[in-house]
Specification:
A: alpha/beta, B: alpha+beta, 16% strand
Amino acid sequence: MARIIVVTSGKGGVGKTTTSAAISMGLAKKGHKTVVIDFDVGLRNLDLIMGCERRVVYDIINVINGEASLNQALIRDKNCNLLSILPASQTRNKDALTQEGVGKILEELAKDFKYIVCDSPAGIEQGAHLAMYFADDAFVVTNPEVSSVRDSDRMLGLLSSKSRRAERGEEPIKEYLLLSRYSPERVKSGEMLSLDDVQEILSLHLLGVIPESKSVLTSSNSGMPVILDEKSDAGQAYADIVARYLGENKPHRFIDDKSGFFRKLFGGK
Amino acid sequence: MSLLDYFRSSKTSSASLAKERLQILVAYERSSNSQPSYLPQLQKELLAVIQKYVDVNHEAMTINLEQNDNQETLELNIVLPDARRV
C-alpha cells in the first residue's frame, strides 16, 4: 500500500519545498520507491530545488489533460534512482488541476511507489486543497513565529475537515509537526517562540526540529536536496525526521543551545 | 537559573508575548471555525426580537455553542440595562 504524505503549512516561505525535497530523497535513500509531486501550478520550484529543472518536458497538467503519459512526465532523480519527480506546470491556469485528475494520477502512482510526497503550495486555494485532499499523513512545516503558527493551526482545521478521509469518515490524517528555522540561541534569549510554546498551541506529534542553517541556501544554490549534505545540521535533522517517520527511535536534537564555553559557564544545565 | 537569566527575567520577553497573543487568537479562531455558519445570522435575528421589547445593544448579547460528547448546548447571554433607567 502506498502512503501519501502532504507537506503543508499555509504560510509561504517556511520551508515546504525544502522539506519535500529532503524527505522524499531521504525515503528513497532508505530504499523506498518514492515520488514527489509539485502542486504549485504557475509557480513551480521543486524542480529547481531537486536540480532537475532542465529535464522538465511534461508536467502534471499535461498528464491530467491526457497530453502525456505519467511515465513521460516523471523525472528520475540523478542522485537516487528510486526517486522520481512530477513537476507542476509553469504556464497553465491553476484551475486546470482537478480533483478527478489528481485522484487518477495518485491511484496510478500508488501501484508503483511506496511513498507519494505532495509538495503543497502556500495558501488555501485549489492547489493546496488537492495536495492535502488524498493524504494519509501530513507534515506540517512551521516556523517559530506568530504568523506561521497561526496558519499552521488553520491548516490543521482544514486537514481534519476538508480531506477525503474526513469526508469518508475514515481514520483521520496523521499530523506531524516539523519545526523549521529554529534557533535555540534566540529561544534562550527570549526572542523566539520555543518548541514547548509551539507545542502548547498546536499539540502535534513532533517529527523533528530543523535548525536555521546556512546549508539550506547553499544546497538550493546547487540544486541538491539539503539531506544529501550529511555534514550539515539541517541535513542531519531531515535524516532524523525520515528515520523517525519510518519508526526508528532517534532522540531529538537541535533543540538546546550548545554554543560557547562561557555561555555554558553562565547558563549551562 | 544562571546569573545572566536573572538579569534577563526583569522584563517580559517578546517570545512570551507572542505566545500569549497566539493562544488567545488560536482559541478564538478554533471556536469560530467550528461553529455552524448560521450562528451569526441567528444572533442578529434574536437581537432584533429582543430589541423590540428591551433597549439592548449588540455588545450586551453573547451567543455560544458548546459541544460535549453527546450533547450540544446553545448558550445565550443577554445583559439587560439597569431597570431604573427603563
